[in-house]
Amino acid sequence: MIETRKQRLTALQAALAAEHAAVYGYGVVGGLVLEGLRSEARAAYHAHRARRDTLAREVRDLGAEPVAASAAYALPFPVPDSAAAVRLAAELEDRVAGVYSDLVRATEGELRGTAAEALREAAVRAVRWRGESVAFPGLAERAGTTTASAAPSA
Q1: What are the Cα distances from residue 106, in Å, to 14, 33, 67, 138, 143?
Q2: What sign does the CA torsion over 65, 122, 93, 81 have?
Q3: What is the pLDDT of residue 133?
Q4: 139 SS3 class
Q5: Which among 22, 28, 72, 29 is positioned nearest to 49, based on CA atoms?
Q6: Could you tell me which of 54, 2, 44 has the C-alpha nearest to residue 23?
Q7: Is residue 151 part of a domain?
Q8: Domain containing 75: what range?
Q9: The total number of structural domains that make up the chain
Q10: Which of 8, 100, 101, 118 is 20 to 30 A from residue 124's alpha carbon, by CA?
Q11: With 60 as the cut, is the pLDDT of residue 143 above it?
């Protein structure tokens, strides 16, 4: 595969947008999960913030302006309680895994390895939240899930 700057930048921006949405989503998760799950939610929140910051630097290194976070994001379903917050956390990880799967496909070299590691981390967190694994995490066509990031609210 020959990676172009445009492909790399497009995939990086998509991953960055997904990380923005995950950071927002974990703010919701952390506020609603039972106390025993808050440390896991906090760890995931910090992991996504760190990935977000790294991706923003990568985009800047390519001479582009990183995509900005939205003020708010539409959640994929109502999240009124801890059980729904746990489902949201698993969904956030599935969506992030999907975007990192795309980044793995669009890049090569060190960035590809970093994207594969991020995909693995998201898949592991999704298993922890869901309590079970899915076949081919990050591949919507194999797992039967969607990978689009949470949409900004209007």
Answers
A1: 11, 35, 18, 14, 20
A2: negative
A3: 66
A4: coil
A5: 22
A6: 44
A7: no
A8: 5-139
A9: 1
A10: 8
A11: no
Helix or strand holding residue 30 (H, E) = helix 5-32
Map 52-98 to HEC letters. HHHHHHHHHHCCCCCCCCCCCECCCCCCCCHHHHHHHHHHHHHHHHH
The reply to whether 94 falls in a domain is yes
Distance CA(46)–CA(37), nearest Å, equals: 14
In this structure, is residue 83 part of a structural domain? yes
Cβ-proximal residues to 31 (8 Å cutoff; 6+ apart), any chain: 85
Task: Using the structure block, give the residue that is written with the tokens 């793995």.
Answer: 104
How far apart (Å, rounded) are the C-alpha atoms in residues 60 and 39?
32
Q: What is the CATH number of the domain that holds 51?
A: 1.20.1260.10
Has residue 148 been placed in a domain? no
DSSP symbol at 151 = P
Contact status, residue 67 vs residue 16, Cβ threshold 8 Å: yes
pLDDT tens-place string over residues 41-86: 999 999 999 999 999 999 999 999 999 999 999 999 999 999 999 9
Whether 132 shows a pLDDT value over 80: the answer reads no
